[in-house]
Amino acid sequence: MRKNMKKATALLIAAAMAAGLSACSSGGGGETKAPSGTQAADSGTSGAAAESAPGKEEAAKTASDEKVTIRFSWWGADTRHEATLKVMDMYMEKHPNVTIEGEYGAFDSFYQKLQTQLGGGTEPDIISVDYKWVSDLTAQGELFVDMNSLTDQIDMSGFDMDFAKIYGAKGDYLIGLPVGINGMGYLYNVEFLKQYGVEPGDDWTWETVLENGKKVQEQDPSKHLMYNHADHWVYMVKAILKQMNGQNLVKDDYTPGFTAEEMAKIFDYERQLVETGTVPPFAEGVLYETVYADQNPNWLNQDLGIFPTSSSLVPGIAKASDFELATLRYPVAKDAVDPGILVTPSVFLTISANSKHPDVAADFINYMLNDPEAISVLKDTRGIPANETAKEQLVEEGVIDGKVSTMVAQALSGAGAAENGPSLNSEVLVLLKDYIQEVGYLQMTPEEAAAEFRSELEALLETIKP
To answer: How much is the pLDDT for 105?
Structure first.
């Protein structure tokens, strides 16, 4: 079964890559395609272009005189799309010579599309990058302008640059600027938990989740306490592992950060979540495993009580949910070696090294992150702003969603050590997802899956280590 599933996964990825520049579909919002006459980025330009980027005076002249078109790509919910498009329009009104084309859609196909674009030299000028991709992308060379070279064009005084470098740098090379701060947590339906006698609290452990899952099932087998998006199964495995032994999934020396016995315990917990009905059977949830709560009918119909999510996605989910929501801290084991909750950048804004207009791209990023009017429009659609000045403005305006700030605070109370690059490798994550599905579909025992996963991971790491 696992081989068939891996084959299916490979076919899906191949299909996504073959789609190339086609529009992303299921992510709550379409894609504004470039006009047919728009030229592709000049693939002959290198990262050295950033070093000779014009200063503020020359950039201002370029922005006011030259007719230019730049492209900007991102993913997210409708709330993020609408706010971003409005800020683009605001910037273009101030700079009539500039046209900014938006390319936006679903997260699940974004990275495959980006890799296709990078391979063909057709990537946008400004690109949103998830922190999980930084290790893979920097291993391919300096594909993006080094943000350290743009301090005269982008005001970075409000950013914690140490935080930016932890997740976005390789040596002295900084891939981009973090837009927001993301914390993981549980978003829950207040009335659902109350109806089934589930008491929320920031002291939940993994046993608490199981106990409350059983409580819901005993009262109504058609309801489930929780639903895990596919990426959050991976997140859960990593969090439990870090709490168990303090290790990342893969160590810095490219060896597994776990024993087969430790991974078997984690896979056994996954199986218990399924067998107790705490989560729906994998076969029922497969249709929604790559979309978020705002597009999951079982959540919107109130058949689920909890949706694990990152704080930056809360506004979009809240807008789509016709019921009261609140947040819980992500579970932490009582004897945790490391609390294991990740607090990360919600997204990095980067500039392609192939961009013909890096000065204009930098000017727009500066506007997006630092202009008071733009900040008021974007609000917290990409999480609590990483720019302290922007955060203070939104706090004063009272526009930061209380659930977002609460989830970030809850995550910070249990923040774990940062993940390392090897643990974020895309091939490693695909392999882990394969075995999570084997256990979730009850096709392999936790012990069998753990032993095979560790063995196959060791072989994979030998091929990808430097």
So the answer is: 83
The count of other CB atoms within 10 Å of the CB of residue 394 is 20
Supply the pLDDT for residue 394. 93
Distance (Å, whole) CA 392 – CA 368: 16
Name the CATH superfamily, with its identifier, for domain 19-179+346-386.
Answer: Periplasmic binding protein-like II (3.40.190.10)
Left (φ > 0), alpha (ψ -120 to 50) or beta: where does 373 sit? alpha
pLDDT, averaged in runs of 10, over the chain (466 residues) = 42 37 33 33 35 44 73 93 97 97 90 95 97 90 97 96 89 95 95 98 97 98 95 96 97 97 98 98 89 93 96 91 97 95 92 97 98 96 92 90 90 88 93 98 97 98 93
**Is the separation of the CB atoms in 119 and 406 below 8 Å?**
no
If 0-12 CB within 10 Å is exposed, 13-18 middle and 19+ buried, where does residue 104 land? buried
Q: Which of 258, 411, 271 is nearest to 330 (CA)?
A: 411
Q: Is 0.85 surpassed by the pTM of this model? A: no
The residues spanned by each domain of the chain are: 19-179+346-386, 182-343+417-464
Round to whole Å and give the CA distance between 400 and 466: 43
Question: Which residue is associated with the tokens 């704080």?
Answer: 311
H or E element that contains 58: helix 56-65
Give residues with Cβ within 8 angstroms of 149, minimum separation 6. Answer: 50, 51, 53
Q: How far apart are CA 458 and CA 40, in angstroms?
A: 40
> Which residue in the block uniquely carries the two structure tokens 């430097």?
466
For the segment(s) 182-343+417-464, the CATH number from 3.40.190.10, 3.40.50.300, 3.40.50.720, 1.10.10.10 is 3.40.190.10
Encode 33-60: b = buried (16+ Cβ within 10 Å), e = exposed.
ebeeeeeebeeebebebbeebeeeeebe
Q: Can you tell me the distance from the alpha carbon of 314 to that of 302, in angstroms, rounded to the nearest whole number?
A: 16
Sheet holding 348-351, edge to edge: 98-105, 68-75, 126-129, 348-351, 177-178
pLDDT score of 64: 57
- 7, 270, 334, 429, 447 from 3: Cα distances, Å: 6, 21, 37, 16, 18
Euclidean distance between CA atoms 135 and 173, whole angstroms: 12
